Amino acid sequence: MSHQIKFIMVGGFLGAGKTTTLGRLAKYYTDQGLNVGVVTNDQAADLVDTNALRSQGLHVGEVAGACFCCHFNALMETIEELGAKSKPDVILAEPVGSCTDLVATVIQPIKRLFDAEFSIHPYAVLMKPSHGKKILKNDKGSGFSPKAAYILKKQLEEADLILINRIDELSTEEVDELTTLIDENFPGTPVLRTSALTGEGFEGLIEFLEQDGDFGSKILDIDYDIYAEGEAELGWLNSSVRVSSETAFSLDQLLLDVISQLQVSFKEKGVETAHLKTIGLWEGFFGVANLVSNDSKPKLSLASDCTVNEVDLIVNARVACDPDALEEQVMAVLQSCAKTLNAKLEFRQTQSFRPGRPVPTHRYAAPQ
Question: Which residues contact 199 (CB under 8 A, 6 or more apart)?
C-alpha cells in the first residue's frame, strides 16, 4: 500500500482545550520522527490558535471563512499545500468550536473520496468541564440557551472517544461526577481523563488514537435549524492591533489585563463567554492568555516572560451576545489598557459577526 497520511481530528466546544491538545500531540509525533501538519479552522481570519501553533515551530495551515464541513475543498487544498515540500505523515485537524456533525460532513467524505490517501484515526472530542457539566445536568444557569447547548451535546454524541480535559484544575470528585454524566448521556463511548496543559493522561490518548478500527462512523440525527440558530446566538470577533509605547511594559501583564477587563465587562452586561483568547507577538517572542467562561479565572496559557515597547495583539472573542456590542466592549477595553500604559493603538482589522447557517459541501447519511 502506498504511503497513507494519518488523519486525526480533535473536536470540542469553544474553550475546551483543542489547540493545547493538538500542540502536545504534534510534539509527540514530531519526536517520533514523523512529519506533522496542523490545520486550524475559523469563521474569520486572524486566528490566535494559528499564530500560537506557528510560534511553536509547527507547520500550520488555516481554513478561514467557514467550518471544515462548509469549506471541505479548502480543507483538502490546505492539506495538499502543507505537503508541497514534504509529505506529512500526520495531519492534525482542529475544527471550529461551535461546529458539529463532522463525522458525516468531514470524516465520511475523506473516507469515500480520499480513501487511498488517508487512514482515519479515532475522532476524539474534548469535554469542556466549565460548561459541559452545567449543560449535561440541564442546569438553567449554564449561560447558554438550549439551542447553543444542543451543539455541545451533539459534539460529544458523535465522538469515538470523549476526553475530560483540564483535570489539573479539578478535584477527583469533580472528575468522577463528569465521568458519570458522560456515561449516563453517551453510554458506551470510551472516556479518558487528560490535561492538555500538563500532559497527564496523554499516554492513554496516544494509545487510543493508534488503534485500528472502523472509526468516524457515528452519523448524527441532527436538526440543522436548531444547530444553525444555536451557533448564530454567539457573537464572533477577531481583531488585530499594534500597541506601542515609549516606556517598556510587560507583555504578559498586558495580555492578562485585556482578558480580565473583558471578563468584568461581560459579567456586567450579563453575557456568557464561550471562549476568549489573546496573543501578543513581537520579534520572536509571544504570549497567550485566555478565558473559557465567565466563572473561570483568566489564565496566561503561554508566558512570554518579556518586556517590550511594541507588540502585535490579536484578540479572538466568542461570546453569547450581539456582535456589535461585543466589538464595542473589546475596543473600549483595548483603549483602556493602552491608556494605562500611555501607549498608542493602531487598529489593523476587526471582524465581528454571527456565524451563518452551516451548508456542508458533502454530507453522508450512512457510514461507509
Answer: 24
